[in-house]
Known about the structure:
This protein is an alpha/beta fold. 43% of the residues lie in helices and 20% in strands. It folds into three domains: 4-48 and 452-567, CATH 2.40.50.460; 57-318, inorganic pyrophosphatase (n-terminal core); 341-449, Diaminopimelate Epimerase, Chain A, domain 1.
Amino acid sequence: MQNRWTTLTADENVVKQLQAELKIHPVLCKLLVQRGITDYDAAKKFFRPAFSDLHDPFLMNDMHKAVDAIGAAIAANEHIMIYGDYDVDGTTSVALMYGFLKHFYDNISFYIPCRYKEGYGVSMLGIEEAAARNAKLIIALDCGITAIDQVKRATELGMGFIICDHHKPSDTLPEATAILNPKRADNTYPFDELSGCGIGFKLAQAFTIQNQTDEEWLMNQLDLVAVSIASDLVPVTGENRTLAFFGLKKINESPRIGIRTLMDMTGIKGDVTINTLVFVIGPRINAAGRIEHGNDAVRLLIAATADEAYSAANVLHQHNTERKDFDKNITEEALKMLDENPALQQKKSTVLVSENWHKGVIGIVASRLMANYYRPTIILAQSGEVMTGSVRSVKDFDVYEALKKCSDLLIKFGGHKYAAGVSLEAAKYDAFCERFEKVVSESILPEQLIPEVTIDAELELEDISPTFFKIVEQFGPFGPGNMTPHFKTSDLSDTGRTRLLSEKHLKINLTKNNLSPVNGIGFDMKPLYDIVKANSKVDVVYSLVENDWQGIKSIEWRIRDVKPSDLN
Length: 568
């Protein structure tokens, strides 16, 4: 599928003014202005995150109630059960709160629901288990905002309930002891894009402030927050940028033994970045809940000894290998269903179901299918008379709002603008497919169905220097809201040394105006090789990375797309 290229703009007057203040390359100033950085002080804060940038946690609705409830439970030596979802955000949240409280209080336990027996969120089975443990307070993390009946049941059983969630609330909130969620309609907190683990951290921060407990121990939990921010794809802006910055710093300087073991087992070399967490660490933590049980992930993250960490990491590594096999087979089967059905290909949405698909990997499959057909996608696994699925969306299309218009056909749904979960009765599948397609068709714009390559700025070869690259690196940590900058250079010519590696990776060697050629690589971009070879001049979109070959470091291009120059 041909990508559409979109070049971002910035107010040239503001760029010039900022360049006069910072005395750096104007393209770098353009990148800053695009990110809302328009003066020296804002730039300093952007490039030098500080703990003082974190907001007062007591600005969040119900924070005093939550801290008081935990304090009262501890004072009475009551059992506290920490409850979290089975994905990365949920398990890191549980590990953070468990590790934080365990440092000074022993009468606690944790609970992760089984994906296959209980499904997503707070379950009645989990409430009954809390009662069996004689818990008097439940702290639910990364879930609970729609658990109206479950919270009511917990109250009937004499338990308090604190909800720490970042998913969109419905119009009616559970009658809990405290609800910490910056997406509440009456929100008073300055930043509403925290991960579930991030909200758990704010609760721990508030408890630390009110009770004057060990602040250093609190900061030791930031590695978990960084993993959750990366894996849950929340914006790496505002407070998340600060949390991710210091969380990555901890991972790279003194990671907890569980993460260190996982890094060793996967052969991670060099500094861990957001991408490392997204593509290496996160999937292995996620594999626990996908294949067997999320408890395995929590055990890794709270491991106290090398033996505990190795045992847990090995289980997760094996689960991830199994997950890859399921993922590959189901993706191939789903693509075949689409490829062999012209009627499905003509739709503006994809909804597929099978009784044979593994419930634990359908979210990954939905993402892969969306990358192939680029349209809102739902992949469902059927068990008996119920279908459960994962939803993924394309840029700028709010799939959560689309699902709301189909809610009467669903048992339940929840999630974000770009990702959600659904369950429905098998008997309503056809009606749901028809309604969802109608909603998408009536609201999605034609350009939203074409993959977009965003270009931050145009560069000439002579602009790219070690100093320029060093400052670009300082724009990190990168992620949604602060993506790795993509540059475009036009009218490049092949030196004759552009080639394919392993018959699938594009290895470029291009030049312009007789300047020293640039090297770059585009992984799995074999089709672009023909474009380079068939055209005298090409335009390339790329990001800048450091290549370290036998101790010799150089700046290399990571290719994003290539087009003939006469097409742009």
